[in-house]
Amino acid sequence: MNAELYSPRSASEAVSLKTPSAAFLAGGTEILRHGSSVHADRLIMLKNTEGLKGITKEQDQTVKIGAMTTFAEALRSSAVPEYFRKAIRYMASGTKRNMATIGGNIALIRDDSYLAAVLIAAHAKLVLLMADGERGRDGAFAMERKELVCIRRYLLEPDLYRNALILSVLLREDVKVVSKRYANTAESHSFLTAAMGIVDGKVRIGVSVKNSGVFFLKELSEEMNDSADPGKILADFADSWNGLDIPDDIFGSQAYKRYLLGVTLTDLYRSLQEDRGEEVSDV
Amino acid sequence: MKISCVINQVPRTFDVDPMMSLRELLVSAGHVCVRDSDDGEGFCGSDTVLVDGTPVYANLMIAAEADGCTILTPDGLGDLRHLTDVQQAMIDAGVVQSAYNAPAAALLLTWLLEKNPAPSREEIKDALSGLYIRDASYEHYYLAVRLVQEKRKTGHYVSKTAPKFRENLREIGTPDGKVDGPALVTGQRAFVEDYVSPDTCYMVMLRSPYASAYIRSIDTSEAEKVPGVIKIITAANCPDIYYMQAGQGNPEPSPHDRRLFNWKVRHAGDRVAGVVAETMEAAEKAKSLIKVGYEVLKPVLTVEEAMADGAPLVHDGPVEYRAGAPADLDEYNAKASADPREGKVIYQFPLGADIHHNVAASNSGGIGDVEKAFAEADAVVERTYQTSQIQHAPLEPHVCFARMEGGRLTVYASTQVPYHVRRIVGWVTGLPENQIHVVKTRVGGGYGAKQDILIEDVTAYAAYITGRPVYCRNTREEEFIANSTRHPMRMRVKMSGKKDGTITGIFLEVRANTGPYGNHCLTVPMNSCSKTLPLFKCPNMAYDLKVYYTNTPPAGAYQGYGTPKGNYALMMAMAELADRLGCDYKEMVLKNHVETGYRLDILKGLGEGREGNVVPVGSCGLREAILKGCDMIRWGVKEQSPDPDWKIGKGFAMIMQGSGLPGLDHAEAIAKMETDGTVILNSGCADIGTGLDTVCAKIVSEVMCMPLEHISVLSGDTDSAAFDTGSYASSGTFFSGNAALDAAQKLKEGVLKEAALQMGEDQEDLDVRMPGEVFSKKTGKVLTYAALSHEVCSGAGRGMIVAHGNFVTNASSVPYGAHFAQAAVNVRTGEIRVQKFYALQDAGTPINPELALCQMYGAALKSIGHTLYEGMILDKDGVCLNSNMTDYGVPMIWEQPDDFKAVLIDVNDQYGPFGAKSISEIACNGAAPAIGIAIHDAVGVWMDSWPMTPEKVLRKLGRIR
Ligand SMILES: Cc1cc2nc3c(=O)[nH]c(=O)nc-3n(C[C@H](O)[C@H](O)[C@H](O)COP(=O)(O)OP(=O)(O)OC[C@H]3O[C@@H](n4cnc5c(N)ncnc54)[C@H](O)[C@@H]3O)c2cc1C
Ligand code: FES
Known about the structure:
The complex is a heterodimer. By secondary structure, chain A is an alpha+beta fold. Helix content of chain A is 30%, strand content 28%. Chain A has a domain at 177-275: Enolase-like, domain 1. Residues 276-283 of chain A have low confidence and may be disordered. Chain B is built from 25 helices and 33 strands. In chain B, the strands form eight sheets. Chain B has a seven-stranded mixed sheet with strand order 8-10-6-19-16-17-18, with helices on both faces. In chain B, strands 2-1-5-3-4 form a five-stranded mixed sheet, with helices on one face. Chain B has a five-stranded mixed sheet with strand order 14-22-21-20-15, sandwiched between helices. In chain B, helix 2 crosses helix 5 (139-154). The N and C termini of chain B lie far apart (60 Å). The mean pLDDT of chain B is 96. The complex binds flavin-adenine dinucleotide and FE2/S2 (inorganic) cluster.
């Protein structure tokens, strides 16, 4: 890669260096790989940036995971809720888990994301550092602000946060989330990941569909919360959901993916109802 | 930027571009075993190193990130003379085969065991989860870990690495390591890329974006101005020589239907121009400046399109025959296109081709009367099966380095066929064979891909005409789009039977897609019939095969040739017939399979372009494999899943292959006793990681009664050894092993003759014994090989003892076996899990039992991949949509069945060296039908195409339309 390299010591410095054509270098497993979706003329290496690592239990039954925490570190930590560790395991390569960071994954907003659907269903929040105002003569921004953003907003309105630095992600422990990922092989990109959570007594659904996008099924979640027969809603939903434009592609036909989504949501719901909060049906 | 780090305990400082990858930094510092097999895709793990004690991919780090770090590379573990216990255990477990990723695996296991001295199976799985292994599967890596643990605890291994065969023999049948194991596992220089000299030029290929087009114009003038560009080779300036790229015996049963560069491009990815430049950057830049005018043609992408009336023709020039031209050739050629850009097609002998209907080859024949059998049967099954286009996906892509040395052309090649490479390079350069030196290096994965001469032709030509060293290495994308693949095939089977389970008639129709060129176009589909129909004791059998040219990426040789496909179709049809007749499948198989002595009349028409040898079945462990496997998998017992959505079923398939090509293959070996009594065997064989050098060394050791470490096998070097057809058609152990045996026996004869003179005894009274000496059964006198050989090479001696062995035969030694699967299928989601897979095979005497087992595991996992996950997907224009590792879908450790077993059935063969037959190709033949039958047993649907995806299961179940 041909780019200028910076190694900021602080988050403020890092965010001040961010331009639309720059990228943060976290685990590098996307930026530095062949066929990467990220192209940058400036790399802002976060390896030596303070304050971006670590997993801590906060008040209000919340766990804070620093953006530069690797998948492997998060997986090893017993403080991290099991529903999230399950999503981490969707990244099949242990070596890649040693490198890839939670922040890097979230920032990519991929339609085959390991984490996005689960984060939506769990109503996770992000702590962002944003550069504001005009750049000064030294290139730095006049102001910066920290913002607490719902993951749904971050994922669904990416343009708002294009230059933001994710400092950490906040996960709730008092939620129940189940999820399921479909991919050809474990190491292949997923073509469908669906997650369902019960948060404050309400159902939340997150879905990522390859070549379609990442979705918070807001209306469906609301309908289910009000319905006497949520199972039926789910079964009917996948076929008729207009908001979802699923193509026929190398992963399968639209009919297959819609069918699978319906079945999976039903299974996830069943699993939540059964109060198991664990893996949907497996051999 | 200055970067300081500690590499393998040595503090180092580099002044480098901080953006260079850590791998580049490490390789430039001499750590060549930190490799890359996917162009930095981050999939294969060949670049695994430890940074501050954690495994990472060095390609996905920049040098700047390594500043201040401690790095351990695989070559920092142990060296050739001081292997670590992990490295030794990997060799002993048999997993060091083609070994491109063996050093990285050693590093990962070392790291794991340091962190966790008693890892569980899941923890081992996780440690290896970022590493792609294609050759041996992952099964014996678990064994390697266990061996290390045992040794650390008790000082020795408790577990067996493999069973021992032939108690009366010392080396043969004994698990005893691999002669090249230490060099490979420690990451020594071994592969083509390690021989590239610093003054090399690079060659990159401009490839066609279109599946079919004439080149109207090609302008290289701007490209040639790029500083550092040496030569651009195109259709305009390449030699007008027609040849083919299949590495087969001469005369080849493949058409000579291409030149180095053609005026008509016939697939998306076809060669348009080869750019040679002093740097890679210059080559790429120049490539981007070549202007090509295409006249785009409508492509044909499937067999159905190719056979349709009025289909566009892939080859439409005149044809020529070197032998056997038909009487109406002139008339036939009158139909040819007048456009010279079509080129021509030359046959060495008739292949049943008709290019004016896109037919590259055809054949038909049979025994008995199938129509009568069908008419009189109690049930007839007729079904059509389809298989996809599969990539070999070896870790090491096709790679070649060629240079002029002392006026001769030297070609470093990762090849299965060094002598065929020499011949083809000779054709395209016009050089005689004595002026070409092919050096087969270690091969980082072949599986048939490297039986085809796909880049050696053009690399060697470029080095010859420029006089400069030239290095060419396929990108991973090129491996998919411009390489040989498994022929996609459509097979129609008609099979009839009686109520008592007797199969009365079998008809197999094969329609194969060879792509744009006819590499192996006759032999691969022939194998669909010749290595499947002879499994059946059926008096009425017929076959009809036609192979079509299309504009898809090329097809060619692939482990198993056409057999996995023909076998898939026949076994599935048999299971359906059993179902239709209400018979138990196992009983039907037992009733209809061949046994020793059964005369195989069906073989008469199934020679490779000539009359086949009708022979009786020789040594055969088929029945034992079936019975034992049925016991292991508890055939007939229905397994239940605790989850009602998951249904479990069982299936199995008979399998067979060959051991080389009787009457066609040829092997030679030259054994010489050095002055200290050690032996060097110059073998023509091409060890592609499977342990063939070890087979040869063990044979010499056994015959000569001398330690294995006193024998070196130098193989695959066309200068030092004599002609061998190469490693394909499962010929290695049988042919090259027999040549080594012949050489060893003649060497022994020479030693005894000389000893008789030196010892003053009669030769009949002498014999050899360990550790390499002649003794007199009469007088008890002893003469060591060292003393004997020193004497013959002293000024007054009779000359070095050298023996020349060779092997050709008309005898067939056929390996048999049966593969078993237990699969769970989710009726709601269509997901398929292979829970158990048992491979049982009769390999005659397994000379290297631990390596043989790993060959079986490797091929079985590969074919599980073909069955369930793999397949190139082309768009409507013939462009491959999944030409990278992640999207293509090779199986890795997570896909491996948890209960995975390989079992060697003990049978002694009459013709093989010490009773050995072949082992690995056959192991590709069972998975598809075994899994397909298991899926039917689970959920009642017949899967008639591979890959058998969840979507296809759901469609069969009627869940989606
Ligand atoms: C073979 C292979 C297959 C892959 N398949 C998948 C897949 O199926 N699904 C998937 O989700 N990923 C996949 N990836 C991509 C990648 O491994 C993961 O998404 C990973 O989590 C990215 O994290 P990273 O730390 O390596 O990010 P990097 O590569 O370092 O950065 C990725 C992006 O995130 C931004 N970024 C990083 N950190 C921050 C931060 N703190 N704040 C704001 N922006 C930030 C960067 O600017 C950059 O644009 C694959 C990678 C490989 C090599
Ligand atoms: S990036 Fe790891 S092998 Fe290529």
